[in-house]
Amino acid sequence: MPKYFLKTYGCQMNKSDSERIAGILEENNYKPASDMKEADLILINSCSIRQSAIDRIWGQTKIISKLKIQNPKIKAVLTGCVLKKDKRKFKERFDLIIDIKELSKLPGFLKNKTSINKHYLKIKPKYETSFRAYIPITTGCNNFCSYCVVPYTRGKEVSRQAKEIICEIESLIKRNYKEIWLLGENVNSFRSGKIDFPKLLEMINNIPGNFWIRFTSPHPKDFSNKLINTIAQSKKATEYIHLPVQSGDDKILKKMKRPYTLKMYKDLVKRIRKSIPKMALSTDIIVGFPGETIKQFENTIKLFKEIKFDMAYISQYSARLGTLSSKMEDNVSHKEKERRDLVLTKVLSKTALKNNKEYIGKKIEVLIEQKKKTFLMGKTRSYKSIRFKGNKNLIGKFVKVKILGALPWGLKGELIK
Ligand code: SF4
């Protein structure tokens, strides 16, 4: 049987796409290879959000070229988020470069035949675990934030049919899945006929079974009171929201083409916390955006101190060709971006530790994800990482854990027997 090696870069959406790639390959009798060296087919599912991912893929192509010299029958495929200019750059290094939307063409390419064109979201995925499933409910984005390549690589936003999503989740719950992640670049602008995102959440919550619902990434502009109420009333929706703010300064937000002000963002957080007091919040931040002054960066620090995020994904700005911001002068030095990143991480680690200490002594539900050395690792409903001792046959199960200690990025506990 031919073997494939699949390397995934980027976000959960890409991970979910890779599950579809694996699904289509295994349907065509390919088996996974544990190493690139033993594969007949090498696939790279790429991410274009940062230049560093593209540079790493360039590094991988050197290894692929060497392997192809040893065995010319090896085929290499590039898919995922790829900008046109990168496609040109990679053209000589891959046998096939396809948009993720064209995934159904892959079997045809492998067998030298034309294949039936079907939307890639209709391809059956091979889920990576037996307890957590990523379900894309929308793909693409219409927002054109000035720094982001997604609208160029994934195209316009399209929602899947609600009926199809519900069917997929029902079948997963029958197979005992415990955690359902709803994915979309702008997940809360989902709409299928009359069904909007809050209604979809309500429908999923009504599916009988013991499971958690999570979603990412919502856009603050589409976070309605109706959505807050639905989450508050849904037992299965967990107490964790990733709410990207990107900057703590109104002028920078405007340059980023994020259509809200700081006041609007803070009001939203206030409304969320009023309805769901236990809600944990994480965010995305870009430091060193073109023209970001020290004063404007300090406004981001102020916001972090005020909101007291539980987690933040901080990136140092890098221009992506084709985006609006790439035409702006990238005038914050690399050294200064590093400094801002470190300062913000320090502030975050203090608030996160303080938030985590609130858990000490509590007994909470945990979904166990893996075993590392002697520890079981899991997540709480509020998406806190937690470690404790226990048997690996508990992986994929809900257990009760008593919290004994807190760190900035996680909790320590003991299993309640
Ligand atoms: S909302 Fe903005 S940052 Fe998010 S995918 Fe769309 S364009 Fe990119």
Account of the protein in words:
The protein is of the alpha/beta class and 417 residues long. It folds into 3 domains: 3-121, Rossmann fold (3-Layer(aba) Sandwich); 126-357, pyruvate-formate lyase- activating enzyme; 363-415, Nucleic acid-binding proteins (OB fold (Dihydrolipoamide Acetyltransferase, E2P)). It has helices at residues 12-27, 51-70, 84-90, 106-110, 150-153, 162-174, 197-205, 225-233, 250-255, 262-275, 294-307, 334-357, and strands at residues 3-8, 31-32, 41-46, 75-80, 96-97, 132-136, 138-139, 158-159, 179-183, 191-192, 195-196, 212-216, 240-242, 280-287, 311-316, 363-372, 375-380, 385-389, 398-407, 410-415. The strands form 6 sheets. It has a 5-stranded parallel sheet, with helices on both faces. A 5-stranded mixed barrel has the order 16-17-18-20-19. Strand 17 (375-380) and strand 18 (385-389) form a beta hairpin. Helix 7 runs parallel beside helix 8 and helix 11 (294-307) runs parallel beside helix 12. The chain is globular, with a radius of gyration of 22 Å. The structure holds iron/sulfur cluster (SF4). The site of iron/sulfur cluster has 10 residues, from helix 5. Iron/sulfur cluster (SF4) is lined by residues 141, 143-145, 148, 150-151, 185-186, 219.
CATH topology of the largest domain: pyruvate-formate lyase- activating enzyme
DSSP helix fraction: 25-40%
Largest sheet: 5 strands, parallel
Which stretches are low in confidence, meaning pLDDT under 50 for 5 or more residues running?
none
Overall geometry:
globular
Quaternary organisation of the protein chains: single chain
Counting helices, strands and paired strands, the structural category is alpha/beta
Q: Number of DSSP strands?
A: 20
What count of structural domains? 3
Radius of gyration: 22 Å
> Could you give me the name of the CATH homologous superfamily of the largest domain?
tm_1862 like domain
Adjacency order of strands in the biggest sheet: 2-1-3-4-5
Average pLDDT number? 94
User: What's the N-to-C terminus distance?
Assistant: 45 Å
